[in-house]
Structures are given as structure tokens and as C-alpha cells.
Amino acid sequence: MFQISIVVFREFLEIALLMSVVFAATKYVPNRNFYATLGIIAGIVGSCILAFFTNSIVEAFQGVGQEIFTIILLSVTILLISWTICWMAANPRRLPTAIKSASTKVAMGRGSRYILTSLIATNIFREGFEIVLFSYGVLTVNKLTPLEVFIGFGAGGLLGIITALLIYKGLLNVAGKYVFKVSTFMLVLITASLASEVANLLSAIGVVDILAEPMWDSSFLIPDRSVIGRILAVLAGYTAQPTGMQFLFYIGTILLLTSIIKFYQKKGASR
Amino acid sequence: MFGKLLRVFALLSFIITAQAEDTQILELKIINHRFEPEILQAVAGKRIKLIVHNTDKTVEEFESYELKREKIIPGGKTVNIILPPLKPGKYNFFGEFHEDTAQGYLVVK
Predict the structure, then answer these.
(1) Could you tell me the maximum CA-CA distance found in chain B, to the nearest angstrom?
(2) ipTM
């Protein structure tokens, strides 16, 4: 029964991190909870729909439909996160210390708030449909009662939500008025790690065969399977044996985002 | 100009098909949340096409950190996993939804 919890929790973790950082960064955006909840609901419903179409997706494009679909999903997520990063860079970074005053609102136009919704939804799709598939698979096997499945799923989900809350609170409390800087830093790393996943997927569909060899092996320091390894993988895309292509995409993304951030910071400062 | 393009196209087709011919094909089955065989053998330096057939009724996710692949395999379905030429070594893979029993190794020599 708790095998289920472990799997569910691990999938949740990937969603949780991005959600927590985005939530922390948008704490003072008016009606943020409404748009975020919209995104969560859309994400859950979307994951169920995607799970339903799994067979068609997997078999599409001569058997690499899943990879192509994930590439598209990741690219959209990368663009949405980049937008969020630019929004943070262009907005005043002095964050109010008083929480309840009306002047603590941070500007985000209505259209932009739907970008928040989309970001949360696509983030949930990515791992959500795996969770749905997994749960459905567990339910159709008669070894466990529905109650046991529910408890197993619930425990994993709860653990995931608690972790997300911890990261969220931790970010707000530790970063304080530097929450934009810290969130930006974390989002840049997350985006770079998503980009390096795209590099892998391009290799998986056979489009890119060059730079496919690992550049080094840091398993002696931090193995992929270790707890630290997995945490770093979620936080920053750590892999013990990065391929040349992964490295290229990762560093390239960081460089690109950093220049874009500088551009928007200048724009924000001149307001 | 056209003649040049034709020659480039012919060269590319040759390279692409030559690659395709130089692919080793391996087969893997998932039976009762275990891999069969649990140890696969392959030759280094040659592309690999790994055909995985999930004979179970429920979905499994084939995953490997070292091979950098993650693929959902619905119950009863067969998928292809393409791997680039690999260096000699032992590459672990597992079924993410049944990690306690679904473990295997690809040994490349």
C-alpha cells in the first residue's frame, strides 16, 4: 500500500518545487489564489484527459509520440517560466515588509495572471498524467482494496503537498525581501534542467545523435539514486553523467536567461 | 546546382540508412512486474533499438538514469526505445511503478 505513496510522492515532488517557487514569487499579486487554483484544476482535469489518451499518444509518430508530446510540453513550460522570470525582473524588487497594507500589491495585468494559470496547469500535466496512469493501474489490479489504494495515494499526495508548503514557507521566510532574487535563481536552474531534459528527448527520438556521450561521471561524489542526488535533480537538474548535448542546453539556457533578465531589469529600473 | 543537391541528398540518405542498418536490436519483456531477461547484452559503439513488451495488464514506466530514458508502456503494449552508441559498462534500468521488483541491467561490452 505504501509503495503507492512513494511513487505518488516522487512525482508530486517535481510538480511541488516549481509550484512553490512560483507561489512565493507571486505572493503579493492580487487574486493570485484564484488564478492559481484555476491552473490546478485545469492541470488535474487535463492530466486525466491525457491519461485517457495515453495509447494514442504513445503510438503516435511511429512510437515516439510520448517523447514528442513531452518536448512540446517542456518547451511551453520553459517559455512560461521564462515569462515569469522576466516579469519578476521588470518589477520593483523592493518587497514590502508589511503584509496587510493595500500598497503591497505587485503589478500583474489580467492577461499575465492567465499565464500564471497556464504555467501551473502545464506543470501539473507533466507529472500529473503519470500519477493518473499509475493510480488507475493500481486500482484495476485486485490485490488492494479501493480503501488501501486511496490511503496509499492520499499519504503520498499529502506528503507532496506538505513538502510544497515547506518549500514555499521556507522560501518566504529565509529569502525575505530577496524573495524575487532567490526565486529567479531557482527558476533559472529549473528552466535549465527542463532544457537539458529536452536535449535527452531529442536524442530519444533519434533526431540528435551527436554529443550523446557522458562528459564526466560524478557518481562517486553524488550518485543519481541517492537522496541528495534526487533532490538536486529536481532542484537543479543534476545528473551524474551529463551528455554534451545536455550540458550545452543547460548552460545555454542559463546564459540566455541571464541576459534576458538583465535586459528586463534595465527596463524595470527606468520606470 | 540541382546536381549538387541531388548528390548531397544521396549522401545523406546513405548515411541515414547506413545508421539504421548498423543498429542492434534487443528485446525485453515485462512479466509480472519483472523484466525478462533481467540482464541484456549489447555491443559498444553501435546504436541500440530496445523493444520492450509489457505483458502485464497495467501500465509500467521504463526508466533509467544512466541511459537517460523514461517511457510509459501501457499494459499489453510494445514500445521502442532508441539508445545512442554506448561505452562499455553496466547500465541499470527499472520500472518506476514497481521499483522493488522491476530491475534490470544492460551490459555493454
Answers:
(1) 60
(2) 0.85
